[in-house]
User: Which sequence fits this backbone?
């Protein structure tokens, strides 16, 4: 190829290339590709890049072209190019062929291309595609870019497979990958298994691939930060098993994949914080199963929705702190089953669950190194902390808790230093505390739930310190109230406080409540013990019954003395002593055997003897209880 074969713009480029000079064929009156003086053949550019002209001594050859239309195919397949390439505001009629090439650097700024194929290419410096319009997508699979990649402001269409940017196995040097500042992809962005030494920026980017994987960074390694505030993704954003050395910034991002995963990041490992705050919005599930976050996860003021499913799944995840203050879940539920939270779980002012949902929050078997804060939280379905272990407090101060068709709080087998149930209004639904282990249980008598499961619950302190009569009303809200353990636990509390009277009152109530679940015969015997000695906790009743029977018998026998059996040997009749002899079977005053009552007096004597034996038995049982219990 000689200069005589070249057009006007080609001759300018031919002359400028050895010195690396600029060739600007921009015509304000004729945009790129419309003027005859702006057209260059791709074969001319290829020839220059592959050595058709040598650089001048002391100069560095390079191709710098602005405002041109390039016809034909720029074919550098498997080629090695030592010169820098810069195209600005150029239009390519056909896709450049750059697969498996080795380039010094490549800059395409504000250019239009039907497609960019750089699969397996190596770029020693920067790959710059800022503000480009690439209608058929960009391919960078298995490419190695030693500098950085700049795609800010680029607008990418999709290939036949729906992919706008394909970078599976891509390796990027310390400069990182910039897809921010107006980047738009109307197709999937695939970075599976990519390795980026610098930051990955998706600040303000838009990726659209409805109903499919839109942004896929599975198994990628990013040795810096992932910056994506104000990112908009239509489709699924995937980060499964990715490793990120810095933080993940998704504040203000909008993810939409209704009915599916909006963000899938199971197995994600992040050394820094994860920010999904400041009006972060997700339509579809945010799934972080088994993720490991060395710092905090922030969901402050996030809005999540996945009706009839999980809006946020943190099952078996490990995280330092979870800050979900003012989190709003407009559909679906939050699940943290088996999660390991080293610090605190803050759900203050959160709005969880909606009508028709069974679960608002499920943190079964979770381990929390700090406290769980549900202050001023609204929950319209069950909050489940069953089997959770909390080193600090579980606070429901100022909360509004409602559930239909199930418990509002399932705290069975919860272990916590403190549980504070002081909601802003009465709890609407059952609270289950069976077999929970608490240091301090604080509540508000004005806002107790109508149903309260207490069997197996243990605690060291109740706050406020109420009299037994009030706490017995509290125990009566347990639908299985005939169980003894809740009463024994409450009595032990009063006993530790040195108040034996209140402890006895609780245990007496326990005996009366237990009687309701026994057989008829057992209930009758229990009723007799209650009437006579109050199950041993009212011993004065036995004395009262003895006095009443003794007085009645003495009066009756004084009015109508029984005849003597042996008049000659019979002692003087004493109605008081005779009645005493009948009532106390183990006492012999010689009166009972000396007289023989008949008629009504005989039946009275039988009654007194039987009553004496019953009273003796119940008194003995009562004494045994007094000796063995408080």
Assistant:
């Amino acid at each position: 190829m000689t200069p005589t074969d070249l057009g006007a713009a080609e001759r300018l480029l031919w002359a400028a290339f050895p010195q690396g000079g600029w060739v600007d064929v921009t015509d304000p009156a004729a945009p790129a590709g419309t003027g005859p003086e702006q057209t260059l053949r791709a074969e001319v550019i290829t020839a220059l890049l592959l050595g058709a002209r040598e650089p001048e001594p002391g100069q560095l050859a390079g191709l710098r072209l602005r405002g041109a239309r390039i016809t034909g195919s720029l074919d550098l397949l498997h080629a090695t190019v030592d010169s820098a390439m810069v195209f600005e505001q150029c239009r390519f009629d056909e896709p450049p062929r750059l697969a498996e090439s080795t380039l010094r650097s490549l800059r395409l700024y504000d250019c239009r291309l039907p497609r960019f194929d750089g699969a397996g290419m190596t770029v020693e410096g920067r790959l710059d595609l800022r503000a480009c319009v690439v209608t058929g997508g960009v391919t960078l699979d298995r490419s190695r870019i030693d500098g950085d990649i700049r795609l800010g402001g680029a607008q990418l269409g999709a290939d036949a497979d729906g992919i706008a940017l394909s970078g599976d196995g891509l390796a990027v040097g310390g400069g990182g990958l910039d897809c921010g500042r107006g980047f738009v992809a109307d197709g999937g962005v695939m970075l599976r298994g990519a390795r980026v030494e610098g930051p990955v920026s998706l600040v303000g980017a838009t990726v659209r691939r409805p109903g499919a994987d839109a942004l896929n960074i599975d198994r990628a390694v990013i040795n810096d930060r992932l910056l994506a505030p104000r990112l908009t993704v239509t489709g699924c954003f995937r980060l499964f098993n990715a490793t990120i050395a810095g933080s993940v910034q998704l504040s203000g991002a909008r993810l939409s994949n209704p009915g599916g995963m909006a963000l899938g990041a199971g197995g994600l490992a992040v050394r820094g914080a994860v920010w999904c705050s400041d009006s972060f919005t997700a339509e579809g599930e945010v799934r972080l199963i088994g993720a490991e976050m060395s710092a905090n996860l922030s969901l402050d003021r996030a809005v999540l929705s996945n009706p009839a499913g999980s809006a946020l799944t943190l099952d078996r995840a490990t995280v330092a702190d979870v800050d979900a203050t003012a989190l709003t879940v407009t559909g679906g539920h939050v699940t943290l089953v088996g999660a390991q939270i080293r610090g605190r779980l803050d759900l203050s002012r959160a709005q969880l669950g909606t009508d028709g949902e069974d679960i608002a929050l499920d943190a079964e078997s979770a381990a929390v190194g700090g406290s769980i804060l549900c202050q001023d939280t609204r929950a319209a379905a069950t909050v489940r902390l069953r089997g959770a272990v909390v080193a600090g407090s579980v606070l429901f101060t100022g909360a509004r808790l409602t559930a239909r068709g199930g418990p509002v709080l399932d705290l069975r087998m919860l272990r916590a230093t403190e549980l504070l149930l002081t909601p802003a209004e009465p709890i609407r639904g059952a609270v289950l505390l069976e077999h929970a282990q608490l240091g301090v249980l604080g509540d508000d008598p004005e806002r107790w739930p109508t149903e309260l499961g207490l069997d197996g619950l243990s605690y060291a302190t109740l706050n406020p310190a109420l009299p037994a009569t009030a706490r017995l009303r509290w125990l009566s809200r347990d639908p299985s109230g005939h169980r003894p353990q809740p009463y024994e636990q409450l009595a032990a509390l009063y006993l530790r406080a040195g108040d034996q009277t209140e402890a006895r009152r609780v245990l007496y109530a326990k005996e009366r409540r237990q009687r309701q679940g026994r057989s008829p015969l057992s209930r009758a015997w229990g009723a007799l013990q209650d009437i006579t000695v109050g199950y041993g906790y009212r011993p004065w009743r036995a004395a009262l019954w003895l006095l009443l029977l003794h007085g009645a018998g003495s009066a009756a026998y004084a009015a109508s003395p029984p005849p003597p059996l042996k008049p000659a040997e019979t002692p003087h009749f004493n109605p008081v002593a005779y009645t005493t002899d009948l009532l106390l079977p183990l006492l012999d005053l010689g009166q009972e055997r000396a007289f023989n009552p008949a008629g009504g007096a005989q039946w009275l004597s039988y009654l007194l003897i039987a009553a004496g034996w019953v009273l003796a038995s119940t008194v003995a049982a009562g004494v045994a209880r007094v000796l063995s219990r408080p």
Observations:
- The mean pLDDT is 88.
